[in-house]
Write a structure and sequence with these properties.
By secondary structure, the protein is α+β, with helices and mostly antiparallel strands. 35% of the residues lie in helices and 19% in strands.
């Protein structure tokens, strides 16, 4: 009989009766062991011999050498290991939540390494199971409830899976953002105007770019932008254009062309291009950085990005320029007194020491910044306050009207205000627009360090040095040749007809080297695209001027003056082939209108916008136009979900 047979026989036999003597002996031994090793020993007698000191490792070794403790320590250690394993693997095994429009937030791409770990080929049985599951998903639209995750949840750390970084990103805890408090001006798209009833259109120029950056930030996060956040003119004016440069006493050159409309062959686009002159010798700059350091600025795309952005700009300043820093949270304070740009280390050290915390005393911060700018200002120099924030002002002057009045009053001193937005979830874009427009400055939204490079480095001269202020455009359309017209964009810059000749009415500024674009879609008389019926009791007089399309007027002031100058130009009917610059601007204008859901484009969609932009990218030295095409493709994909 071998050992296995003996074991089988023992299992079949009845268990032996307990030996009472052995049991009693075992209990006595257990009590004795407990007394010797776990109980309290008798008090030691006094002696002049010091006890031998035992080290940690020596005591640990003695403990493990006691036979009765080994099972206990083994069991305890096993429980700890099992517990740690459960804690580590549970988040990875948890089912992925289904994103909704309310909570869909993409993790920042820089939080995870962009790697791919390639797995060995699956066994035939595994491949068959995977194919079966795929067929079930294709048939029902969802995975069967019986399907289980068979992948080792820790395999990504062992290099035995092909889980991509994006897939792992979805498994990680996602940042949860409460209901967004982002605010945008509520302006409906410009309506179609009937020329015979309302032939004059008046507006202020705009060189802000915040809307385009916000649209880019939304699309790259996998979200379609709020239609209110899309301002078509800011998207078009985001790009530099190779327009005709000025060569006379006027600080800018206007060029008007008329071409066929890409989205409607029965209408025409009137393209107004304005190119500002460059600054050859600039005066010294006095800059006050007014920085929001409230508690909401802790995110990586807020205060940390803000600090990096302003450090980039320091490299463009000249030794004679001066910089001061004012911060505001629960209260406002001066972090850096006026310092020459040549002492760059001191300025950078002040920026690096900034931290976020507290509420948002924006009104008090504005007062402190303007007061400091006034102390720095000297004749012949340019003074600006650069406000950088993630949201609205909840302490001090809180109403938009109070802030607007304060900024309007301060601009009379010659100190202008530019506003830069950072982050998401708390951006008050409406207030940014109000402050920048009434502070004779620029509004921009900085979502990446590349955008900071464009705004604060590449285009620093345009942002800081004004060559023409209070620039207004007025177009009078000829009712004999134009039946209807529509201004594309500039909804928040509309002016009354009588405001054009009123020099007390504020308007937009043109910075050094800035280009400005405005587009009208016009419907010729007799076109099949006319949407309105003629009035029964009002008709256009026959025999009118049929050679001119419109009459263009521009007003502007030279910096520091109170009286405007007038420019006038006739726009002829002749249609020309849209040049590369005008065609790309039209593609961006169409893109913006699609994002706003404008129905005036008919069946023209993202595919047509992409084709038009691709065909007219031109040199594109910085890649801005190629990036725009990628955003169009993203919007096309997101709109089909």
């Amino acid at each position: 009989m071998d050992e296995l047979d003996k074991l089988r026989a023992a299992l079949r036999d009845a268990p032996p009766a307990p030996d009472e003597a052995s049991k009693e002996a075992a209990l006595r031994m257990a009590e004795e062991n407990f007394k010797n090793f776990q109980g309290s020993a008798s008090a030691a007698r006094p002696t002049d011999i010091s006890p031998e000191r035992g080290g940690f490792l020596k005591g640990l070794g003695q403990m493990f050498n006691k036979l009765n403790l080994k099972p206990i320590m083994l069991a305890t250690t096993s429980l700890v290991v099992v517990g740690v394993g459960v804690v580590l693997t549970t988040p990875l095994m948890r089912p992925e939540p289904v994103p909704t429009a309310a909570n869909e937030v993409a993790a920042p791409p820089d939080m995870l390494p962009d790697v791919e770990l390639v797995a060995p080929e699956p066994a035939p049985s595994q491949a068959a199971d995977a194919a079966s599951t795929s067929e079930d998903v294709a048939a029902t639209g969802s995975a069967p409830t019986s399907a289980k995750r068979t992948r080792d949840p820790l395999a990504v750390f062992r290099g035995r899976t092909n889980v991509r970084s994006a897939e792992m990103r979805d498994r990680l805890p996602q940042p949860q953002i409460s209901q967004s408090r982002d605010q945008f001006p509520d302006a409906s798209p410009n309506p179609l105007k009937v020329t015979s009833e309302d032939p004059v259109s008046t507006f202020s120029i705009d060189v802000d770019t915040a809307s385009y950056s916000w649209v880019r930030s939304s699309l790259t996060r996998g979200q379609m932008p709020d239609s209110k956040s899309v301002r078509v003119e800011e998207m078009v004016n985001y790009f530099p254009y190779a327009y005709v440069a000025p060569n006379g006493d006027v600080p800018f050159q206007q060029t008007v062309t008329v071409s066929d409309t890409p989205w409607n062959p029965d209408t025409q686009l009137m393209h107004i291009a304005i190119q500002g002159s460059q600054v050859t010798e600039r005066p010294p700059l006095n800059l006050v950085f007014l920085l929001d350091t409230s508690g909401s600025m802790q995110d990586a795309n807020k205060l940390p990005l803000l600090v990096q952005s302003f450090r980039l700009m320091l490299g463009q300043l000249r030794p004679e320029d001066e910089v001061a820093i004012v911060t505001y949270a629960g209260s406002a304070g001066t972090v850096l007194e006026p310092t020459k740009a040549s002492d760059r280390d001191k300025i950078e050290d002040a920026l690096r020491r900034l931290s976020a915390g507290g509420s948002t005393a924006g009104g008090e911060g504005l007062r402190a910044a303007y007061a400091l700018a006034g102390q720095m200002s000297r004749d012949g120099e340019v003074s600006r306050v650069l406000l950088a924030t993630d949201g609205d002002f909840n302490v001090g002057m809180q109403s938009d009207a109070a802030l607007k009045s304060f900024v309007e009053e301060k601009r009379k001193s010659g100190t202008y205000l530019s506003v830069f937005g950072f982050g998401r979830g708390n951006v008050n874009d409406a207030l940014m627009q109000t402050l920048a427009q009434n502070g004779n400055g620029q509004a921009a939204y900085i979502d990446t360090l590349a955008e900071a490079q464009k705004t604060l480095v590449d285009q620093l001269s345009g942002a800081m040095f004004t060559i023409a202020q209070d620039v207004k455009i007025q177009v009078e359309f000829n009712p004999a040749t134009v039946a209807e017209y529509r201004l594309i964009g500039y909804e928040t810059r509309a002016l009354k007809r009588e405001d054009f000749n009123n020099d007390k009415i504020d308007a937009g500024e043109i910075g050094a080297g800035h280009s400005v674009t405005a587009l009208y879609e016009v419907t010729p008389v007799g076109s099949d695209a006319v949407l309105t019926d003629p009035l029964r009791f009002g008709t256009v007089a026959e025999g009118g001027n049929t050679s001119d399309l419109a009459f263009l007027r521009l007003r502007y002031k030279e910096p520091g003056t109170d009286e405007s100058k007038l420019l006038e130009e006739i726009v002829p009917m002749a249609t020309v082939e849209a040049g590369q610059e005008a065609a790309f601007g039209a593609a961006i204008a169409g893109f913006g209108q699609l994002l706003r859901g404008n129905t005036a484009l008919g069946d023209w969609g993202y595919s047509e916008a992409i084709a038009l932009a691709n065909a007219n990218k031109g040199d594109d030295d910085y890649g801005y136009r190629a990036e725009a095409v990628q955003l169009m493709r993203l919007a096309q994909s997101l709109s089909q979900r």
